[in-house]
Design a protein that fits this description.
single chain; 429 residues; alpha/beta; Aldehyde Dehydrogenase, Chain A, domain 2; seven-stranded parallel sheet; four-stranded parallel sheet; 16 strands
């Protein structure tokens, strides 16, 4: 009987998910052509409803946090899960901010006329239905939903079991806000079960109703999504970010940038994990940079030259160059120049974010042109790898693939395009 029951449960889950896909597809057809005024009104109503539901949401969050603590969860993971009144207000404010962004749908991206008189326009259009699979951060529920709606897309959200209660009430509040202004509730749907099989069904595409998947979470989740998805994926697996201190780097600037890039928040994907220092500045720059990191509690794993600077530096292994620490640890390597720095980044990097520190504009330009990463910076911290810092208002994630969405994925990146062609009776000869 247990086998039959399990089979029935699987069939029921599949039916539920397919129905969600159909509802999302139907909603996407409506909101794809919705006015900017209606989309913005719906988002502001959603933010207002979250504020009204504050006590319910915070109570649900306390239950989620208590359950996580009972399972032994602690540290940064628990912090990401926890909401208070300030954080919940920040979630609502972020939705209001997205509502105020420009409307990307219908923007003319390019326009030209052929010799035969045909006039061409490349015009931004929504992707359709976006599936978002995330873990502990309940704010992703609101951020992802708001960005999808503003860009004319419907969203199917699958929250992690840790934030299930909180995320469910945030989504419910947003749907109530949508309904109050006559906007399709099914513009966002949160998967109403913790059953992990729901993830696999989303990755299958739900009979073609999901157009793209965005995972937000740890390496294991992203790896599974990238391995199993049968629809396009916007994601990054790791953030192995580099800073290269060039031969013509200002030492004070280098110190300030490196400390920020590594230690401002060690657990974000834009945190620097490897420091490359040009051999030309080993004597002038290396000792101070190493001391600054060590005195602030950052462990260093370095090559032979770096180890000689301080006995607290441990030997870097081959694996260190491939490691995303997400902690107060950094690997440090001396390179012979720009070419070796770029070669190292190409071999060990994850195409996420890299920075060069130099006063030599030609060297900076070469670095920015040759390094094949989603984000490359000159004289700035890698922790600017964030949609808000790009002026996008927010981001649904960061993508390191080579599709049109690369780097922070905001409302513009959640659009595709189509061609509109205007003629006056032309036919092919």
């Amino acid at each position: 009987m247990s086998g039959e029951s399990e089979h029935h449960d699987q069939q029921a889950l599949k039916a539920l998910m397919l129905e969600m896909g159909e509802k999302a597809r139907a909603a996407s057809r409506i909101i794809a052509t919705a006015s900017n005024e209606l989309k913005s009104s719906a988002l502001r109503a959603a933010a207002a409803e979250i504020r009204k539901s504050k006590q319910k949401i915070l109570q649900a969050n306390r239950e989620d946090v208590n359950e996580a603590e009972t399972r032994g969860t602690k540290g940064a993971f628990l912090d990401r899960l926890t909401l208070d009144e300030v954080r919940l207000e920040a979630i609502a404010t972020a939705i209001d901010d997205v509502a105020s962004l420009h409307d990307p749908v219908g923007q003319i991206l390019a326009e030209w006329t052929q010799p035969n008189g045909l006039r061409f326009q490349r015009v931004a259009t929504p992707l359709g239905v976006v599936g978002v699979i995330f873990e502990s951060r309940p704010n992703v529920t609101a951020d992802a939903a708001a960005l999808c709606v503003k860009s004319g897309n419907a969203a199917i959200l699958r929250a992690g079991s840790e934030s299930f209660r909180t995320s469910s009430l945030i989504a419910e509040a947003m749907r109530m806000g949508f309904k109050s202004v006559g906007f399709p509730e099914d513009a966002i749907q949160l998967v109403p079960t913790k059953n992990r099989d729901a993830v696999g069904l989303m990755l299958s595409g739900l009979n073609g109703t999901i157009d793209v998947i965005v995972p937000r979470g740890g390496k294991a989740l992203v790896a599974r999504v990238q391995d199993e998805a049968r629809v396009p994926v916007f994601a990054h697996l790791e953030g192995i970010c580099h800073i290269y201190v060039h031969a013509k780097a200002d030492l004070a600037m280098a110190e300030r940038i490196i400390l920020n890039a590594k230690l401002r928040r060690t657990g974000v994907c834009g945190a620097a994990e490897t420091l490359l220092i040009d051999q030309a500045v080993v004597n002038t720059h290396l000792p101070m940079l190493i001391q600054s990191l060590l005195t602030r509690g950052c462990a260093i794993r370095g090559d032979e030259i770096v180890q000689k600077i301080d006995p607290r530096v441990t030997a870097a292994t081959e694996e260190d160059w491939r490691t995303e620490y997400l902690d107060a640890i950094i690997s440090v390597k001396i390179v012979t120049g720009l070419d070796e720095a770029i070669t190292h980044i190409s071999q060990y990097g994850s195409h996420h974010t890299e920075s060069i520190i130099t006063s030599d504009q030609a060297a900076a330009d070469e670095f920015l042109n040759r390094v094949d990463s989603a984000i490359v910076l000159h004289n700035a911290s890698t922790q600017f790898a964030d949609g808000g810092e790009f002026g996008f208002g927010a981001e649904i994630g960061i993508a390191t693939g080579r599709m049109h969405a690369r780097g922070p994925v905001g409302i513009d990146q959640l659009c595709s395009f189509k061609y509109r062609v205007y003629g006056s009776g032309q036919i092919r000869p």
